[in-house]
Amino acid sequence: NGLFSALIELVCKEISRIGGVLAYVRPNESSFPILLKLGFIEAQQMESRRYVVPSATLSRKTGMPARIFQMAGLDWASKRYCVPLHHQSSVVIEDLQRFDSSIDPVWENNVDHFQLALCRDSAYLNWRFAKCPTPYRIFVAHDRGNIAGYMVTFIQTSAPIARILELVAEPNDLQVPELLVATVVRAMLDSGIESIHTWTAQERLAFTADAVLRRLCPLTASSRLHVAVRILHPECVRQLPSTGWYLSAGDFDGF
Fold first, then answer.
1. What is the pLDDT of residue 235?
2. Could you tell me if residue 152 is left (phi over 0), alpha (psi between -120 and 50 degrees) or otherwise beta?
3. Residue 33's CB: how many other CB atoms inside 10 A?
4. DSSP 3-state of 236
5. For the whole model, what pTM was predicted?
6. Could you tell me the pLDDT band of residue 1, with boundaries at 50, 70 and 90?
7. Strand, helix or coil for residue 241
8. Where are the alpha helices (DSSP H) in the chain?
9. Which of 92, 115, 143, 191 has the highest CB neighbour number within 10 Å of its CB?
10. Is 113 helix (H, G, I), strand (E, B) or coil?
């Protein structure tokens, strides 16, 4: 406890020195009580959500061949309900290696809908995903030459598991997040992925990408994830908002 506490204090001191006004972390059950004693509060909680391929799960549990459950139509029914269908559209989905400033308007059109969120401009997104040694895959939706949304995923090499870290589009645009999920997730499932995981904020957000993720991954873990925050400069942040947070799996290490 002493070493962990000293490390947390050292990190918070450095964050404050370089101008950070708050520090946040997604602690486990062991570190969370210690953080509370160090001035952190549980500002929010997150839900760990997943989509599973029924045939693979039932095969592991029963020992029966997955093909039996596939022939019964379980995989088809699950995908039909959770994964949006492709449909004709002017939107084109492409791989992306690096963000440029053309992505910035997507976040600028979202930011006023939230009380607290990390700034997702091109500089941050490149630092977090494009320049990171973790092999994230980035997909963007182009609509008539403009970027209308993006999605960031990660596929494990040790197991047939995929994770969705970000799904962002215009707040009231249903078509773009549905097409991103339809294109990317269907390709994942066709390649043999057996489960897809993501995190969503406890509070339902008033934008369509959140609803698309919740429908894609309807199964939730029994316990929620802690989000602990410590205000470092009370003169800048006197009180944290109780609602209107935008949080995603991409805001945290671990994927």
1. 82
2. beta
3. 10
4. coil
5. 0.91
6. low
7. coil
8. 2-17, 32-37, 54-62, 66-71, 74-82, 104-108, 122-125, 175-190, 208-216
9. 143
10. helix
C-beta of residue 250 within 8 angstroms of C-beta of residue 134: no
Q: For strands 195-201 and 91-96, give the pairing.
A: unpaired
Which of 124-138, 153-167, 172-186, 227-241 shows the lowest mean pLDDT across its residues? Answer: 227-241
With beta carbons less than 8 A apart as the criterion, state whether 99 and 126 touch: yes
pLDDT for 33-73, tens place per residue? 999 999 999 988 999 999 999 999 999 999 999 999 999 99
The pLDDT, as a whole number, for residue 116 is: 87
**253 is written with which tokens?**
């290490």
Q: Which amino acid is at 202?
A: Q
CA distances from 23 to 18, 123, 125, 229 (A): 12, 20, 19, 6
Q: Which H or E element spans position 201?
A: strand 195-201
